Structures are given as structure tokens and as C-alpha cells.
């Protein structure tokens, strides 16, 4: 049985938590920050967890990170 492949784009962008959720960087912070309000910038710090629907898309692409 050959090894399953992990999507390289997923291993760069996502990581798994101990409880099995998918952790990712906050979206919407690459450019155009001058037009964002201060509350958005504060709340968008750090990382966030993906929704359950998005997790179902990502988890099959990362077979060895469970």
C-alpha cells in the first residue's frame, strides 16, 4: 500500500490542534489595512479555527496530521 500524499499548500497554511480542530491564520489582513477599522485589526490578531464545514474539506488533504 503506497503512502498517501499530503497537499503541500495545506501543510503550509493549516495546523491541527490537540482536539482535532484545524487552526489557520486570520483572513483579510494582507493589504488595505488603512481602510479597516481599529476594532477589526485588534480582533484579527493571531490565529483562528476553521468552521466545521471547512474542516471537512481540509482534513482529507492532511491524512497524517490527526
From TrEMBL:
It comes from Sinisalibacter aestuarii. The lineage of its organism: Bacteria, Pseudomonadati, Pseudomonadota, Alphaproteobacteria, Rhodobacterales. One of its GO terms (cellular component) is ribosome. The gene is rpmI. Belongs to the bacterial ribosomal protein bL35 family. SUPFAM superfamilies: L35p-like. InterPro entries: Ribosomal_bL35, Ribosomal_bL35-like, Ribosomal_bL35_sf. This is Large ribosomal subunit protein bL35. It comes from the Bacteria. It holds the Pfam family Ribosomal_L35p. Keywords: Ribonucleoprotein, Ribosomal protein. The keyword Amino-acid biosynthesis does not apply. Transmembrane segments: none annotated. Gene3D superfamilies: 4.10.410.60.
Amino acid at each position: 500500500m503506497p503512502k498517501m500524499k499530503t497537499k503541500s499548500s495545506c501543510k503550509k497554511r493549516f495546523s491541527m490542534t490537540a482536539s482535532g480542530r484545524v487552526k489557520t491564520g486570520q483572513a483579510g489582513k494582507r493589504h488595505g489595512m488603512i481602510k479597516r477599522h481599529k476594532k477589526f485589526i485588534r480582533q484579527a490578531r493571531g490565529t483562528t479555527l476553521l468552521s466545521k464545514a471547512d474542516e471537512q474539506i481540509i482534513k482529507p488533504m492532511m491524512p497524517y496530521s490527526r
